[in-house]
Amino acid sequence: MKPKIFITLSIFFFISISCRKSTNEQIGNQIEIDLIAKLKARIIEQKRISSHYDAVVIDTLLNQSKWQNGVKITASNGKELIFVPTINNSIGLEFFYDKSKNSIDSINIVKVASYQKNDIKQTLNAIEAYYEIVLLKRNPNLKYSGKIQAFSISNKYKYSYSFQEDQVINRGIVAPVPKNETTKIKSSEMKSLNVKSFSNCELWGHFTIWSDGRTTLDYTYFVCSCDVNTGINLQSGNTFIKSLCEGGGGDPNLIKDIKNQIKDTCLKKVIEYLQSYPVNNSITNILKNIFSVNNKINLTFIEDPNLKKLNGTELEARTSSFPFQNSLGEIEINIFINPTMFKNTSQEFRATTIIHEIMHASFRFNNSFPNGIGDLFEQRLQHAEMLENYTNEMADALVTVFGMSKQNAISLTLFGLGDSNLISENVISSQNFQNIITKWGYNNNPTSNFFWKIPATMYQTSENLGTFCKSGQLDLGTTTN
User: Fold this and answer.
1) Is the C-alpha dihedral spanning 367, 373, 376, 380 positive or negative?
2) What is the mean pLDDT of residues 304-310?
């Protein structure tokens, strides 16, 4: 159980501000390569002492931060305030760096929403406003209006501050809800909860404390035997309630139930392996930390030897177009697999297809793409999204399962995304695709030893590379190379 935090709901909110008349017009200087190395080293050090689940989140931050676009400004006391954007430019890593001591005093994930134009200057203004006004009680004369939210690097809510012309108008915190406040919560906020099942839990909430002394309770959630907190989706910028249960604290995995209706023995073995910790955990990491899916998921794998594309050619697999929630709020996803397409393939190739289809299901459930654009074109938009943003995470799942090289896992992941259709239909440019494969050490020259398709085609025929499976075999398979 989390330790109780006692708060006073009626707070006289006053920030004393001294005068420091200097208008900050600087946009920021690019951070140096050696400083980037120091920042990364500090995060890696934090990852080393973190729990498994926190370490996964920190890995995601490292991979999705645009270090080359990091900027810094110098504030009071010689402190360097640094911002490194992620895949969403309004979200990034905030560092307070003491150059004289060569020490990093603070690291947070921050999201900035400015009342002026949202750009890098306003982001730096928000960070400086928090540092100068809130921490040092000084007036930086920024004339900043907007909001900054901060989360730990393991993506747990810390605080928020809203400013109007350099004046703090409110701040946000999370804390236990006092007993006398529970009766004031509207029933609509708890209508989907079975309150009896939470009798041994503690009700927490997000409070906004206003400068005029008012306090509002914005939303609530239960904290039982494990860590529950508010996190932020790095892609969309939306906040969500995240539950990180481990050890005896509950089930940490999102996949609640896997119904395996596949008859083909080798495919069946790969799917059964999803129920073991390593694979389940890898897919959980993808769904929870990238897509912010917190609902429990029920997967049903259905064998369909007649799966076909619109043009009549055979199709390896397809995910139900409209995953739905059952009465318990669990996501029901059907994945159809054509066993005739996998007769001579490796287990790695089969597993890649399954992970690929789960990604499709997550996109569709989260309405990541607009409705009415056509199922086939929507699928290709999803392929482009996987290609540009999630190749690393999908490949990591394969590495976790099979212990294969990351390079080969990347080739397998790329293989299912169909570069020719993406390019011909202008979903991505040929140059963009070239940049992506170059990043992973591949090229697009079929005569080259580094042609990106070579490892994947070898895994497609298990005699050449990978883990092969014979019908009736009891284990996952035997590695041929």
Assistant:
1) negative
2) 84
Judge contact between 45 and 213, C-beta under 8 A: no
Q: Which residue has the tokens 């001294």?
A: 18
Q: How many CB atoms sit inside 10 A of residue 238's CB?
A: 10
Place of tokens 């689940």: 53
Model pLDDT, residue 476: 47
Find the length of the chain. Answer: 481
- Please give the model's pTM, rounded to 2 decimal places: 0.51
The per-residue pLDDT for 286 is 60
Residue of higher predicted confidence among 80 and 203: 80
3-state SS, residue 210:
strand
> Hey, is 458 helix, strand or coil?
helix
Q: CA 129, CA 111: separation in Å to the nearest integer?
A: 14
Within 13 Å of residue 118, how many CA atoms lie on the same side as its CB? 12
C-beta of residue 145 within 8 angstroms of C-beta of residue 161: no
Q: What is the pLDDT of residue 12?
A: 36
Residue 125: count of CB within 10 angstroms of its CB: 25
What would the two tokens of residue 5 be? 């935090």
| DSSP per-residue letters across 263-304 | --HHHHHHHHHTTSHHHHHHHHHHHHHHH---S-EEEEEEE-
pLDDT of res. 284: 58
